Give the backbone structure.
Amino acid sequence: MIFFIVLLYIYSAMAAQISTFSQCDCGYSDPATSATWSEMWHMNFETNDGTSPNMQQQRLYAYKELFFSNYIINAKFNDSYPRVFRKENVWIHDESLEVSVTVDPSKLKPEEKIKCGGVGTNRQDFLYGSFKSYMRATKVNGTVAGMFLYNTQGEIDIELLSSVSPSQAYFAMHPGLLENGRASSLTHGNVELNFDPSKDYHEYRFDWFPNLTVFYVDGVESYRMTTNVLNLPSRVMFNHWTDGNANFSQGPAIENASINIKNMTFFFNSSNINNGPRCSNSKTACDIQEITKSLQSGNQSSSAEGSNTDEDSLSNPFERTKTTSNSSTTIIGITNIVSYYIYAALLASIWLVLMPYS
């Protein structure tokens, strides 16, 4: 009987967690920008579940919500390297998603010597929204870390160049404009950072509107652009690469380098017209700031000084995604599997308790 009560309590806690944001079917409102978005996509990579690294890799690559870069971008200049992206350069490590540049000194050919990493959403229907992540950059010179929206016709980029000192964040629209042979400030910008991005996690974000994109670092507006703003459905991507371009990335990197992503949170509209808010469970949009506080208190500290695991999570799954569409929220991934096992155990315990009376 005690076992039954414990299981009932655990499963109730899990059920409450699964339905955390089920009432937000009127969308998500940001009081700071007066914007309202219809959907939310959140993924947390913190883990303490004791799963072996090999098993984590298998789960990660099988995860249907994610896309892994596995292609080659040819060298853009005679003295630069091709960017060879391999999915094996993305893995779970140090309670984060690690995206790496790896160097094999024994190889002579550039396409064999250096491998890069990239990961993104399988969804390609993001059409305007607020996109942010907590990332830690690398201290190894010669690489570029990117967080961006991608469509074959254009991009919106935040990039961190490890060779630049003092550290800066770069912002860009693609296609970009040139002025006197140099990148135009209309489609390219940068801000000097007052911290070392390789020492700790910081929040990088951009808000994408029709004809306007606003870039933020740690919640502070850093730059805005109104020229060549992407207006097509896109996927969200993160990558880490090196190509030896003396005018940008520099390098190439001569040793392994990694960036780490603690989590990703997107509030957005979908190009799928059937995914708009229905307001069947609520009358007003949920406050993005309150939702963000809830995610931070459950998944990590809001401070860039460190992070905490979710003590309320039953299994501390290696990855957890919350996606909302219309009137429901689903936590996708290992958490669902755990809940199924708990539910099965609960039914079995009920049967064991009632069997003597049958």
